Automatic annotation (TrEMBL):
The keyword Acetylation does not apply. The gene is prfC. This is Peptide chain release factor 3. One of its GO terms (cellular component) is cytosol. GO terms for biological process: regulation of translational termination. It comes from Lacicoccus qingdaonensis. Its main location: cytoplasm. Residues 8-272 form the Tr-type G domain.
């Protein structure tokens, strides 16, 4: 098969949601459909109870397969679909955001009873910034939830995106009858086998007791309203991420999944191009192999330094044992150990194509954001991955003052690698760490001890609103206060750490001449 045909078959998406909305369950059902697994319950060593965050290393080991479950490939309708998990809960970190840089579309799972929740919103914003298509699966229709119109309105208002329901629910909870499929004018009944066909006037072709049902009549009226007054179906808006196709279903009951997949493969993009540092674009069908690393899974086994670097292939074809160049250093390496992830095991990769995600065994050579390209081919270096605005901060120092050198070397490496962000106080140069999730601090502490032989003392500063400054030259010392604390980032840019929203607003009112901005 030609390179072009292989690439055309690929669809790579991230699944985003707030914890407990049903992300794992939906992933599992998608894999079942794709024939990648034979029975449910194999995707994740699902958390049994709560772990203290400091147990993260143990947790990783106990789960064991958490690496394999973070990227998976399955086949559907002739397509090769790569699904990337975006870890939440205590696993939430910058990696979660960076995963969204490696995909071409996103699937947002919403719990029908809860609507849009905070983590969904955060991840959604990053998808929106990238302008990638977003598909919405409203889950748990087998339970009582919010009314469908209320949910659509919430999506439209909170997320500022148009909606286009591809299916429409008839009732919910106990009285959930099924979904109307807008594409083929069929009703897929929740508790019956046979599909029910509707005619052009949306009447059931064959007689059925449900027509007498009030829930059915209401649903039909609502559906007609959506048909007449709802947003128009617009392919281009979907591709730009301005309109989201919406599906209703129940992941747990494997219901509404096929309707979703059918539309997904029709409208999700094939692998898309990526920008280089010099502003040019690398398209997937470019002959030469290239890719970038967006996540590094630290040593799973504390006895070894081995890590797994996750790479998104941007162009061409990867072949096992190929010679590749690490753009940052210009060094040539033979890439012989790479894996790809199936639901319940990992496989050695012999070949992979643009759009695919592969795991490279790493003994410490790779950093987040690194580019690899085929030796002998064109030199490629992708633009930096974005930095995200941290929300949590910790003062940090070495427990043993004799270990300063190790301490700073460790910090430098971990910061470069993208594990954590580094700041310092203005005059005293007290190191401060910034993160988007608590897990990043735990990982930092653990790796400092194990890899840099340094015990650290961490003192939480808590949640802060970090704002960078456009016109640094106008900053005056007097603007620095405990509620608007001025610090330096790793590039020596000045950053305000505001106590809360109120302090941020107060500052902007008092010093309107200072132009503040946030990273993503
Ligand atoms: P995640 O945290 O988003 O990965 O959510 P899970 O997939 O682990 O689901 C959270 C809980 O919701 C589990 O107890 C699931 O069994 C349950 N769940 C998932 N999908 C459905 C559904 O369609 N209906 C109902 N009633 N429960 C569901």
């Amino acid at each position: 098969m030609t390179l072009q045909n292989e690439i055309k078959k690929r669809k790579t998406f991230a699944i985003i949601s707030h914890p407990d909305a049903g992300k794992t369950t939906l992933t599992e059902k998608l894999l079942l459909f794709g024939g990648a697994i034979r029975s449910a319950g194999t995707v994740k060593g699902k958390k049994s109870g709560k772990f203290a965050t400091s147990d993260w290393m143990k947790v990783e080991q106990e789960r064991g397969i958490s690496v394999t479950s973070s990227v998976m490939q399955f086949d559907f309708d002739g397509y090769k679909i790569n699904i990337l998990d975006t870890p939440g809960h205590e696993d939430f970190s910058e990696d979660t955001y960076r995963t969204l840089m490696a995909v071409d579309s996103a699937v947002m799972v919403i719990d029908a009873a809860k609507g849009i929740e905070p983590q969904t919103l955060k991840l959604f914003k990053v998808c929106r910034m990238r302008g990638i298509p977003i598909f919405t699966f409203i889950n748990k229709l087998d339970r009582m939830g919010k009314e469908p119109f209320e949910l659509l309105e919430e999506i439209e208002e909170t997320l500022e995106i148009e909606t286009y329901p591809m299916t429409w629910p008839i009732g919910m909870g106990q009285s959930f009858f099924g979904i109307i499929n807008r594409k083929n004018k069929q009703i897929n009944p929740f508790r019956e086998e046979e599909m029910l066909q509707l005619n052009d006037d949306y009447e059931l072709e064959a007689e059925h007791a449900i027509t007498e049902d009030e829930a059915y009549q209401t649903a039909l009226e609502e559906f007609m309203l959506v048909e007449e007054a709802g947003d128009d179906f617009d392919k281009e808006k979907i591709s730009n991420g301005d309109l989201t196709p919406v599906f209703f279903g129940s992941a747990l009951s494997t219901f509404g999944i096929e309707e979703f997949l059918d539309t997904y493969v029709d409208f999700a993009p094939m692998p898309t191009a990526r920008k280089t540092a010099s502003g040019t674009e690398v398209t997937p069908t470019d002959e030469g192999f290239s890719g970038f690393i967006f996540k590094i899974q630290a040593n799973m086994d504390p006895k070894h330094r081995d890590r797994l670097a996750f790479m998104r292939i941007v162009s061409g074809k990867f072949t096992r044992g190929m010679d590749a160049v690490l753009a940052r250093t210009g060094k040539k390496t033979k890439v012989s150990r790479a894996t790809m992830f199936m639901a319940d095991d990992t496989e050695t990769v012999d070949e992979a194509y643009a759009g695919d995600i592969i795991g490279l065994y790493d003994t410490g050579n790779y950093q987040i954001g690194d580019t690899l390209h085929g030796a002998g081919g064109k030199k490629v270096e992708f633009e930096n991955l974005p930095q995200f605005t941290p929300e949590l901060f910790m003062k940090v120092s070495a427990k043993n003052v004799m270990k300063q050198k190790h301490f700073y070397k460790g910090i430098e490496q971990l910061v470069q690698e993208g594990a954590i962000q580094y700041y310092k106080t203005l005059h005293t140069n007290q190191p401060i760490l910034g993160a988007v999730g608590q897990l990043q601090f735990e990982v930092f502490e653990h790796r400092m001890k194990n890899e840099y032989n340094t015990d650290v003392v961490m003192e939480p500063i808590g949640k802060k609103i970090a704002r960078w400054i456009e016109n640094e030259e106008d900053i005056k010392e007097s603007m620095n206060s405990p509620r608007s604390n001025l610090v330096l980032d790793r590039y020596d840019n000045q950053v305000f750490l505001f106590e809360n929203e109120f302090a941020t607003r107060w500052f902007s009112d008092k010093f309107p001449e200072i132009k503040l901005y946030s990273l993503l």
